[in-house]
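Example record

The entry below shows one chain as it appears in the dataset: sequence first, then structure tokens.
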Amino acid sequence: MKNTNKTIIAILIGLSPLFTSQVNASDSHAATQFSEPAAWQEDATGFVESNDHYVSINNTNKLKLKGRPVTGWNKFYGESVSNLRFVGDLNFDVGGVYNPEGPALPIGADTSPLALMASYAAPDVYLAFFGVPNAQNVPNQNILYADYPHIITHDESERGTIPQLSENPDWFGISNGAKNRGLTVRDWVSAKGSMKFVCDDDGAFYKLSASNLIPGGLYTVWGFYFDQDFGSLMPDFAFGGASSNVFSADRHGKIKSSKDLSFCPQKVTINDRQVPVSMFLVYHPDGRVHATVGHPVNTAPFIGPGMVATPQLMFPMPKAGF
């Protein structure tokens, strides 16, 4: 859709902090209904490939999505991961590698797999997502995830680096339960997972299964959707509701759980106003979550994506019919 391209351009140059742009009504409310392509062929993993997404649909009540490891928002080693509903290959750098000689570096095709993961967000991210001025001056960049500041006082007045659990000689001391010391890009992109939506007589829920995550790491699941009345991609929302979208990887770096939903993602059609685009499993190096928002950005110092919330797996909805 030509007008969708205008939406993406507006986002990238920061003209639309809430992703708003006018979309032609005939484009955004096309008569095409969602249908399961007959050409889908199941592979050895039990998933089906269609429009560069891996999905598995047994019937209209079940949908299984294969997680894609990412080094940014819809980004993998500098390239877009998926052709998403409505926004195509829109992508941003949120997450990078440590640079001892200067600012953190984005992860690209020439990045060493042994480079250490560190906090980073491209300047256009904060401008496009939140309309934040001087976004290039976002603090807390180029910090190794193992050294990212945590709240260490009850009144939240102090933040600092805390030792790994194995590094703390006192069992009762302040420790970081996430084993992220020496976390490399290779470790990061080795993450695997799937998300399955089920709608039956007991209601709607999703099952999350993931492995090769950061042992003891704190994660949340966030969803992005496209609002066809506004013609805009909406900011992240807590998938399944606040607190219900929170997960902690076990000592082996695995998550396996199920959570309730208020709707059936696979039953949303092109004629609905709000259409799910993709879900993300997001890591929080500061060991903290923020209820219904992924990160605070309304007041200085604008610490958000790439700093305290970095996507590690994405689960794009199938493009079919959209």
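Notes for this example: The helical segments are 2-12, 25-28, 123-130, 185-189. Residues 2-316 form one domain.
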